[in-house]
Structures are given as C-alpha cells and as structure tokens.
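Chain and conformation:
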Amino acid sequence: MLDVNSVITLPLMQAAGLGSSACLGQMTLPFDPVRLTLLIAWVYLCMYCVQRVQLGGLIPDPYKMPASLVTLVTGPLLPFIMLIVVTAQKSRRTRRGFFDVLKEQTEWAWRSIRFVGSSLKHEEASLRLLDSAGRSMDEIYGHGAGKHADSKILDLTETIVADALERRASDILIDPKDESAYTIRLRIDGVLRVTDELNSDLCRAVINSIKAVTGMDIAERRRPQDGAFTARRGDDTFSFRVASAGALNGEKLSIRVLNTGAGTTTLEDLGISQRQLVTIHQIMQKPSGMILICGPTGSGKTTTMYAMLNAIDRYARNVITVEDPIEATLPETSQIEINRRADITFANTLRSILRQDPDVICVGEIRDEETAEIALRASQTGHLVLATIHCDSNAAALIRLLDLGISSLLLSSGLSLVISQRLVRCLCEECKTPAALSDSQILQLRKKGVDCDGIFEAGQCKRCGQTGYYGRKAICDLMVVDEKLKAKIAEGQAFLAQLKAEGANQGRSNLRKRGMKQVLAGVTSFQELKRVTG
C-alpha cells in the first residue's frame, strides 16, 4: 500500500532539489516565480498611484475618475507625465529653472500627501485651525467627519497653513492671477516666493474656509475685512491676523503669522552690536524718557520692543502695554489690546493707564498726534515709554512727529533714544561660498585694510530652500538724544530744515556701516545689504 506522506512530500522534495537528478530534470513549476513577484509588485504600484491621483492636486477633480482608470493600467506613467507638464508650465510662467521647479513641486506634493495621509491616523499631531471661540473648522461647517468635498477643502486649507509654518513664513498671500487661477506666495525671511497655483474655484473655497474661521462675512467679496484665528498642533499654538480685499479677477487674502515667540526674545538674540547694547541698557535704566523704534513694515520693530521689555525687571516695575494686536504673552505684564468697535483706542487707553501707577508704558504704534502727545507727556512725568513708529530713519521719525503737530519743546524734552532698524538675511551656513569679488572691489577693500577672505555670498541647498539665506539679524542706527541734540530739536523749524536736507542720507549711511560689519564677518552678503539699505 502506498504511503500518503510519501506521495505528498516527494514532489516537494523534487521541486526543492532534494530528489534525484532524474526527478529534477523531469519536474517544472507551472509559473515563473520572478514574473509572478513582478506582477504582484506592479499591481500594488498601480493601486498606490491611483490613491495618489485621488489625493493629489496634479489632476483636476472632473478628470480624476478617468485618470484613475488609466493609472490602474499604466501605473506611475500618467502622474509622471502630468507632473512634468505642470512643472514645465510653472517654470515658463515664473521664469525659473525647470529642475528647480520640479524639485520644489515634488517636495510640496510629498508634504501635502504626508500631511493629508497622517491627518486621519495622527489627529493629535495635525494642524487644526480654530476661531476666536476655540471651534475647529469641522464644527464651524456643522459636521464632524464632513462631506467629501468639504473635507478636501479643509484639508487643503490646513495644508497651506502648515506648509507656511514649516517654511518659517511670516505672511501668506493668496492673490487672483486671472479669472481661472490664483497664486499662493509666502514671505520667508522678508522675501516673497511663489509656492503654488490653484484653480479659481478651488482657491475661492479655500478663501471662504479662512474667512469662516476668522468670523468674516463670506458673501462680501468687495469690501475690505479683517479678522484673526489660531492654529493648534500638539502643544503648540500659532496666531494669525487676516485681511481681505476685493481685487481685479477676484478677492485677495493676506495672512500675517504673528511672532508668538517674541515673548522670549532677548536683545542679544537680535544680533545688535555689543556697543549698542550697552547704550540701550543704560537708557532703559533711567526712570523716565521715551525710546522710539522706527523702521518700515516688517523690520522687526515689535520684536525689538518685546526684547526690551524682557530686559526689564517686571517684578519690581509695573509694566503696561497697549498693542494692536497682542502678538505674544509677557508674564507679569498688563497687556491691553486695541478694539475700535468698543472705543478702545491708543489715545483713550493711554489716558486711562496713566491712572494705574505704571512705571513702564509700551505703545504698540504711534499713528496720530493725540497718541504721540500723551506718550511724550507721560515720558516727562516719571514713566519710561517704549513706542514704535513707521519711518525710514531716525531723522524721518523726528520730522513726522513734528509734522503731526508735536511742539519742538515737548519733543526735545521727552525723547531719550531713537532706534532705526532693518533686518538682513543671514547666509546659510551649509551652502555659503567665498564671494567672487571684482579686482576693483578687492583693491578698494585692501586700501581700507579689510581681509577679503571673510566675505561670502549665497549658495544653494535644501536647508535654505535654494535661496542661500536662512534667518535674519537686525542692523540698527542709534540716535541718543543728549543735551546738545535736545537744544537743536528745540530750535524748531531751523533744525527741521536741516534734518530734511541731511538726515535721511546720514541714516542710510549709518545703516550701511552696521551692515558692512556683518558682511565682513561673513554673516550676510553684499547683495543682501544693497537690497535692504539701497
């Protein structure tokens, strides 16, 4: 009788090469293992590519179903062709290198897929947009899991904001390019970069999502509106200020990322020179006087003001701030936010806080004569006042205050220090290269005894996003208002005419000198200094 085990095991042993040579020669597998493995891998690759087509933004929504069917057969061929076509269009439109745009597109697509894919599995680690009442976008739209179309819009909105935070952007600009497309730009280290382009219907839905979370009127697309929202990712919270306005071909949106980390910034972190730090600290030790910080929008005035407040002993001194809006929380500080609807203005608030026994008063911005006059009078009556004003130079700040109607005597007696500030981008430490200077530049520098070996220029690497710069530092021009300068300011019109003739040029010259020290130290480049100071 034949053993059943032998019937079963003999063919297996022969197939594995354990039988006789005769059996090995006669036994053949009914399939090729290598081809079967490749077929299974191809099927899984096609299914994965179909999933990427559904989640990605390369193919418009109406064509995703037929594209998925084609991708199911052709695998990565169709998505690859679409990526090349979109990259070529964007390269021609932005006049940038094809491979630079291709790399940027690939990285952005991967971040978007990773963010959307992980949002379902790791909700606690994803970015959630919240309104002023702490409601999420799902709660605002009135459904938990959400409809498919709404969920996709919300995911895209959160992806755009998350991408801006990951790239250290200070502003997100969503602008209509034409009737069919919108561009998304990020301001990174003070310079705008085009990061994406969306079709108009999709981008309008994104704009409506942001307007909904900020409490704006979605139906109003022409009248300017403003609002604010927050975002939470894990234990981190981010604050945003939003402004909308009607524009040609649609509605534009500007989102400012507030610097919530300014509450821990110190003057040393800003890159101010040691000599200037000594001067600032000496004036801050005085019980009264005004320190005025001036500069254009985005020059870091508020961050410098917060750094000064961090240098004050807030346990021993009563510090009150008036801001619009409050960008960071300061412990042991009374912070008041402007609310024009409730008639809480800079001038009204300053009058009230003078009755609250303050030692240090911080004014977020001087915008009118009334605010300037109250702040200057407070600096004469035993209060240290910190304030900012939008001006190009120290001389322009004095001229503006005088033009606002402030008397020259009040200005001369109240001011203690004026600081004009700019931010220059720092060279990326991983890709900066020695500067290729011309012979005339080398000759001029050597005449001044400057070592040219310490001068660098921007390179390109992944860390800095191919820009050559990463982070920024402050360069400052200090005007100490001593007794001699107080006497000149008190002269009034004569000194005002002198300031208008010489002040602006002198201020730019001082900023260039401060910037040149950073260039010679290898911190920034000649090109960046010229861009900032002109």
Summary: Residues 262-425+473-533 form a domain with the Rossmann fold fold (CATH 3.40.50.300).
